Structures are given as C-alpha cells and as structure tokens.
Amino acid sequence: MSDSGHDDLASALRRLAQSAEVPPLDPVRERALLEAFDKSQMEQRTPAGSGVWRAAAAAAALAVAATMAWAIVSRPGRPPAPPAVAPLTTTEFVVWPGAAELPTFESGHLMRMEVPVSALRSLGLSPPPSPVGVVQADVLVGQDGLPRAVRLSPDF
Amino acid sequence: MAAGEDPSDDALIVRIVSGDRDAFAALYRRHRADVYRYAMHISGSRPLADDVTQDVFMAVIHDAGRYRPERAAVLPWLLGIARNHVRRALHQRPTVTLPDDESAAGRTLVVEPDPLGGLARRQHLLALRRAVLELPVKYREVVVLCDLQELTYDDAATALGCAIGTVRSRLHRGRALLASRLRGTDSPLFRTPVARGML
C-alpha cells in the first residue's frame, strides 16, 4: 500500500469512526448501574458489621471455653459444687454460672457448640444417660458477647 | 461533586473506590460512548454493544479497587475489560450482525445538496464497516483501537494486554488485509475512481 493509499485508508477509517452512532443515555440502564453500585457498597459495609458479630461470637466461645476449663480444672481440688439449678435432662435453658451478675440481657443470639459431658454438671445440666464424650449445647449469648444461659440441644 | 469540577479519570476511580456514587455516574457518562463504540466496531451488534457497556461498568463497580494508575490509564483499562466481554460474547454467539440500512441513521430523513454523493458515501462507509468486521479478531482489535478510537500504541497494548511491537505488527497486517479486501470487493463503489483513490 502506498503512503497516499495508507493516508486515504486512515482518513476513511476516521470517517467510519465518526459515523458510529452511540445511542443516547438510557436512564433505565444508568439507574440499574447506580442501584448495583449502591448494593455493592452496602454489601461491602455488611461484612464489616458481621465482623463485629464474629468477634462477639469468638469472645463468647472463649468465655464458654474458659468457664468449662475452669470447671474441669478446679473440680479435683474442691468438693463438687451443687449446681445452681436442679439438674435437668430436658432441653430447658438454665442460667449460665455467674450470668446473674452480668448486665441485663437485651439481645443476643444462640450458639450451638460441643460441650464435654464432664462439664455439664458445673453448668447445671444433667449428663445424658448414654456414654458419650461430648454433647451439643445451645448457649445464649448476650449483646456483650457473654453467655447468659445454656441448654442441651434438643437433638443432642 | 461540586458543579463545574472536572476531575481526572484517576480521581474518579479513587472516589468510586471510596463509595462515591456521583463519581461512578460521572465516569459512566464520560466513557460510556467509548466502550460502546469499541464493542460495536468489534461485534457489529448494537444489542451486544449495549450489553457489553453495561457489563464493563458492572465490572468497574466490583473491581475499581484493582485499577492501578501506574500500569494503565482508565480508558485503556475500560477497553481491556470491554475486550474480554466482547470476546466472550462472540464466543458464545459467534454470529456477527452486520450493520445495514435499517439502522436509525438509515431511516433518518435528511435533505442533502448532493444526494447521489451522500448515498455513495454511506454505502462506502457500510462496505468499509463490513470489511473491518470481516477482519480476524486480533487484527480487528488493533484497527479499532488505533485507527477508529485513536488510542496510542501504548494504550492499545495496555488494552490488549500485549507488547507495543505486537500492536504495530498487527496494525500493519490489519491495514494491509483491510486494503486488500476493499480492493477485492465486488461492490461497484470500489471500482469507482473515488474508491480506488481512497486506497
């Protein structure tokens, strides 16, 4: 292709570029994008919020574990403490040891966790008759991440 | 954003990442046409170009944080995203809709001082558009980016994710193929002195 041919082709392509019509701004499409943008921003904020819940849950789990560890470790050195409430084999909630001193329960959530059978009595719960090592328990965790009550999971 | 401000593309991206809705709208309005034209020139399909434009800005919503100003300007970055979407769309529905006179432009009533000349020019452009669409995609991309959208070789290389040398060689080859196809067309338009002179 000669130089003039090249120039002609280039100018023809420029005319082609200029002839390309772009449809006018479609408000529906723009609105859809802006809504998607808003949704994306909300989703980005939500994980940060759920991070607070995760931290609270982790704190609750830590508190539960610490309580159970204390109950297990301290048992040999002292006589078995009477449970705070009558032993239960039902699935009713019993007050978590020491929860009465905590701030008033306002809101919270349930955490299902595995609890050693050996720790059940110290929590005021009766161990199941079957010889299992751990059972599932539902721990009611308050707004501050501290446990308030516990029960054996109905399907333990 | 305050009225009268004309922030750079990079500044808009920074604001978008921080959640500025107006910045996103501004970027969309600024570059929507560039993305649409690219998709349209590559695919020849208006619906596909519409969809790709929407997809590109959806990608901006989710991936603006991945934009690196030291690696690319915003427009080549957007066109690089568009390129991926067009390729994927063409792979899924490879039929290319060629533009025809049923477009809105073809139905527009205009009064021309030289109707025959105007008709010849329109048909000429149509033939050229068809020739571009018939180029292999890798040549079509560089011709569209460099000749139709007037990106620099550097920016075209960024959009295509290849070396500048590759852009140069593909552009050279693409133009040669284009010229060859236009010369070989059966259209009487390209046997006219005007058309021959163009090449």
Describe the 3D structure.
The complex is a heterodimer of chains A (156) and B (199). By secondary structure, chain A is an alpha+beta fold. Chain A has helices spanning 3-19, 27-74, and strands at residues 94-95, 108-116, 134-142, 147-152. Helix content of chain A is 42%, strand content 17%. Chain A has a 4-stranded antiparallel sheet. The longest helix of chain A has 48 residues, at 27-74. In chain B, helix 3 crosses helix 4. The N and C termini of chain B lie far apart (48 Å). Residues 100-110 and 186-199 of chain B have low confidence and may be disordered.
Features:
heterodimer; A: 156 residues; alpha+beta; four-stranded antiparallel beta sheet; 2 helices; rod-shaped; B: 199 residues; mainly alpha; 0% strand; disordered C terminus
Helices and strands, with pairings:
The complex is a heterodimer of chains A (156) and B (199).
Chain A: H1 3-19, H2 27-74, E1 94-95, E2 108-116, E3 134-142, E4 147-152
Antiparallel strand pairs in A: 1-4, 2-3, 3-4
Chain B: H1 9-17, H2 21-43, H3 46-63, H4 74-92, H5 104-107, H6 115-134, H7 137-148, H8 153-160, H9 164-183, H10 193-198
Helix pairs in contact in B: 1-2, 2-3, 2-4, 3-4, 4-8, 7-9, 8-9
